[in-house]
Structure formats: C-alpha cells, structure tokens
Amino acid sequence: MSGEAPLRARGESEKITINLGFIDLGQIDLMVADSFYANRSDFIRSAIRNQLERHADATRTAASRRRLELGVSHYDRALLATYAERGETIDIRVLGLATIAADVTPDLARGTIASVAVLGAFHASPAVKAAIADRIL
Fold it and tell me: Interior CA angle at 6 toward 100 and 132, to 5°?
C-alpha cells in the first residue's frame, strides 16, 4: 500500500515548542557548556529517544492495538486511483508520517479516503486537507 521507513526518518522533522523550568534549563545549559551535548536541541532529542526506547514495547503494543502503520506512509495518485476504480475507500492510520502526494486532487482524496488518524505528522496540500477535513480524526 505504502512505503515504510524507519520510525525516526532522518531529514523530515517537525518543530515543537516546550516550556521548561529555569532549573531544568540551567542544568541542560551546564551539560552543553561541559560538552556532553552539542546544544539544547541535541540534549532534548537524546532525552526523548531514551524515553521512547525505554517504552518501546508499550508503544508497539498500543500501535498494534490501534492498528497503526508504523513509519512513513505515502499515498500517491496511482494508489488512490486504484481504490477509486474498485469503488473502495481506505482508512489512513499511521504512527509517524503520512503524506498525500501533491498531484492528488481534492475530489480523488474525498472519494477514496474514509478517515485519517495520524499520531505524528500529516502532510497534504491545503486543498486536500480541506476536502477531507471532516474525516481527519
């Protein structure tokens, strides 16, 4: 159905903002100043990866229970056209990154995508997102 890549695909990322207490931030800055980490972001990414690794079994179990596809899933025009020809729809359920190709028309997306549930990031053109807005969970 779609291509898969490692859960932590390199090159593609989303920016997030977090609030930290002054003491926590100071401790991170101390670790950076003493060259344990290159910068604050390096420290935070490392801490997050350590926690995700620590809870990997629970994550896999929860993803399986929710029937989520792990990794990077790409839905292109040819794939969706195949569903349209068969009169079928799909449920996009992804933990990671789900993308809908730029050449997918809003009508094709609306006619073939029954629902979208993404834990992570969902990339599609604004027109496609608008066409299926009522189906994005």
Answer: 20
